[in-house]
Amino acid sequence: MHIDRFVRGKGHFVITEYLATDERVGPRYPLLLTTGRILSQYNVGAQTRRTDNVVWHKEDLLEIHPHDAEERGIADGSWVRLASRSGETTLRALITERVAPGVVYTTFHHPDTQANVVTTDYSDWATNCPEYKCTAVQVSPSNGRSDWQERYSAFADKSRRIMPADAAE
Amino acid sequence: MQSDRLVYMANQIGSFFATQPGTGAAEAIAAHLTKFWDPRMRKAICAHLAAGGSDLDPLVRDAVALIASDKAKAG
Q1: Three-state DSSP state, A133
Q2: Helices (H), chain A
Q3: Residue B69 sits at the chain A interface (C-beta within 8 Å)
Q4: Of residues A16, A121, A125, nearest to B13 (C-beta)
Q5: What is the pLDDT of residues B57-72, one digit of tens each?
Q6: pTM (2 decimals)?
Q7: Residues of chain A below pLDDT 50
Q8: What residues have CB less than 8 Å from A147, skipping those under 6 apart?
Q9: What burial class does residue A113 get, using C-beta atoms within 10 Å of its C-beta: 0-12 exposed, 13-18 middle, 19+ buried?
């Protein structure tokens, strides 16, 4: 196909301008949330949560720096409410110095948390890829899961029951 | 799709092409919208311009006008 020359011509390289996101931290949402993945779960976990991988990662945790946690009265392993301008969810906190002060991190592998309830509609100009690495949030202590999480969890458990099948022969 | 969202996206695209050297930013924005937007989105942004085009940046305004005139020519 490309013998002697490239069919569509040579590549066109340009210097691209950096266009920052319009998401902003402020007094009500002073922390930055980034979401990401860990090795033992794949995407939303539809496949890997059915396996023993849950031993390594049985729920999404909110990683928060000790300074930020202390300021908010958050203990390791306690429930926290994670709220942005878009929405809110609750999950357990993991106090760690892996994240910088001012930054919190969580994964999106578990439907009980639904991290994208919190992320915003901002996207990049070229591909419209959603901005999942930069959401202004506030974190506060919580008594446990919010109402929609309780309702969704019951529904999710019910819809994922597996009937034992009889062998074909 | 709501027109304020379309205007936001079009202006975001415009702010990139405004930084590119050379002339023809409006043409480049029009080409981007033609290549990557759904026809319904282009129709909606053209309708927004026809209705006054509030909040559209000047370059994006020119680009949408180009798309609208191309469409008029094509019938």
Answers
A1: coil
A2: 66-72, 147-159
A3: no
A4: A125
A5: 999 999 999 999 988 8
A6: 0.83
A7: none
A8: none
A9: buried
